[in-house]
Amino acid sequence: MAAMTISLTGASSASELAWEAIDWLHVTKKVDQLQMRIAKAVREKRHGKARALQWILTHSFFAKLLAVKRVTQNSGAKTPGVDGVLWKTPEQKIQAVKSLQRRGYQPLPLRRIYIPKTQGRRPLSIPSLIDRSMQALHLLSLEPVAEMMADKNAYGFRPKRSTADAIEQCFKTLALKVSAPWILEGDIQACFDNLSAKWLLGHIPMDKALLAKWLAAGYVEEKILHPTLEGISQGGPISPTILVIALSGLEKAIKSAVSRKDKVNVISYADDFIITGASKEILEDKVMPIVANFLKERGLELSPQKTKITHVDDGFDFLGFNVRKYKGKLLIKPSKKNVKSFLGEIRRVIKSKPTAKTENLIWQLNPKIRGWANYFCHVVAKDTFNYVDSCIFKTIMRWIKRRHPEKGAEWRNKKYFRSQGLQYWIFSAAVRDEEGNTSFVDLLKAVNTPIRRHVKIRAEATPYDPQFKEYFLKRKWLRVRKETKINQKGEEPLNFNSSREVKRTTGSLKTGL
Questions:
Q1: Staple partner for 379: which of 41, 326, 332, 371, CB 3.0–4.6 Å?
Q2: CA 338 from chain center: how many Å?
Q3: Nearest of 250, 266, 290 to residue 185 by alpha carbon
Q4: Dihedral angle computed from the Cα positions of residues 153, 156, 159 and 165, in that order, rounded to the nearest 10 degrees
Q5: ∠ CA 238-26-55 to the nearest 5 degrees?
């Protein structure tokens, strides 16, 4: 951007702006500065100033650039809305930035699709790219406010937080002998779909006119326009943050009505939460009425099928993990339901590729295995990893036998497997790079993923408070250091020597830092 200057709230002074020439570090820095000021105003209860700063940010040219960038780099950028429009070229992205204007803006209806779910299908409403960008723009101004309002032990849809933090909080809350033995497993029924539009318009601190338009946009299914009377779409960038605000205050409402000896703790991730208690009666008589009234104000209710009270010795499933005490010792493992679902997906992929090249099958399976193993690598999962590897191996053997029914076992094993050091039966394929060099691409084994304890984020920490700046820098440094040590020790020793796999592995590491 050497040949141009951009004001904070205005457009570029240059007649033409080149997308490739934008200094994104500078853009991000300017947006961050305004977000920090918004958060500071909210902490000081200067809500008028916070609204003024939100207005400045949503009219900032830098913020518009960043909003379009995030939408077009998102994994859903190739999924169009009802208008079928995609932004692929730099010129289209620049034009999209210029089109983000509040005056005259009218959102298009959402495109309704359905995604698979454990029980049936889940509806998902997809906005057009222009609507996604407008929501992403206003998300930049809403997220700092949401962070100041959110419950301390809410971990879903918040920056710098993850399911690993929620599970580690479960361990800290339930591991001791004197910890609460009873758990209320809560699940909100159709949370996004049933949120009260009236409540949202009265309590979400953002541009009310735009929020009202998004709530009433409607959706198109099989070329028929349907109205939306309640709720907010799950496919919009701003929807998760709106949910965070809608559910903020639940922890405070519960703890204000109980005493310390009741051992009540709240841990939530989006619309799933658990509440601990010293007895079943405390959860039934004190906690559940408060939760029901809190949700009722927002047009929500608990799911009768998924909400139940459980003893920690019997165990419960939360976010794909099973939490249970065995003879007084708390162990957290991958849940049987999650393992079954994952293996079902792996078998489906393998079965759908009867004639695929071996390396192509491995390239498709490795990201799934790596992602699943990394999700559970901070709990008691080694035995489960061994079991999963065994099941995948058996499925691979069946796949090989179907491909070569006339060949003997020795021929099949020699063609598809190799050994490396003390590791045997490595499902592998030899590939050549552009220079003609031969290397191997191996199927990942979940058991090679090292088990390492996750360091939970501090409950009060937020990236929008300057007092935690050094804290987050230290967490980032520790994570980089840990990843470096793992690579140096070779705890994930299987080869990813093809250029395609090396690029994928390196890219995923860089993205996660």
A1: 332
A2: 17
A3: 266
A4: 60
A5: 40
